[in-house]
């Protein structure tokens, strides 16, 4: 049985979906779907779940 560990990331100034996805080695679409957001909703202080 595979365990999934979620990480929490707080968006910082000048972050975008591409930079966050590269940092965690996940696809941008994965972050968007997991958090039920669009790229325009990525703002400083937003809490994201990274799978």
Provide a brief overview of the structure.
The chain has 51 residues and is of the alpha+beta class. Helix content is 31%, strand content 16%. The protein has a single domain (7-50), classed as Roll (Membrane-bound Lytic Murein Transglycosylase D, Chain A).
Helical region count?
2
Total domains, how many?
Answer: 1
Order of helices and strands: EHHE
CATH superfamily: LysM domain
Low-confidence stretches: none
CATH C-level category:
Alpha Beta
The CATH architecture category equals Roll
Note the beta-strand portion. 15-25%
> Strand order across the biggest sheet?
1-2
Could you please say which CATH topology applies here? Membrane-bound Lytic Murein Transglycosylase D, Chain A
Total number of beta strands:
2
State the helicity in percent bands.
Answer: 25-40%
Largest sheet: 2 strands, antiparallel
Radius of gyration: 11 Å
Give the termini separation.
16 Å
Give the overall average pLDDT: 94
**Shape estimate:** globular
Q: Structural class, from helix and strand content?
A: alpha+beta
Describe what this molecule looks like in 3D.
The chain is an alpha+beta fold and 51 residues long. The protein has one domain: Membrane-bound Lytic Murein Transglycosylase D, Chain A. It has helices spanning 17-24, 28-35; strands at 7-10, 47-50. The model has no long low-confidence stretch (mean pLDDT 94).
Label this structure with key terms.
51 residues; alpha+beta; Membrane-bound Lytic Murein Transglycosylase D, Chain A; two-stranded antiparallel ribbon; 2 helices; 31% helix; 16% strand
């Amino acid at each position: 049985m595979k365990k999934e560990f979620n990480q929490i990331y707080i968006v910082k100034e000048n972050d975008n979906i591409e930079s966050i996805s590269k940092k965690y080695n996940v696809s941008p679409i994965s972050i968007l779907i997991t958090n039920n957001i669009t790229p325009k909703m990525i703002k400083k202080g937003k809490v994201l779940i990274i799978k």
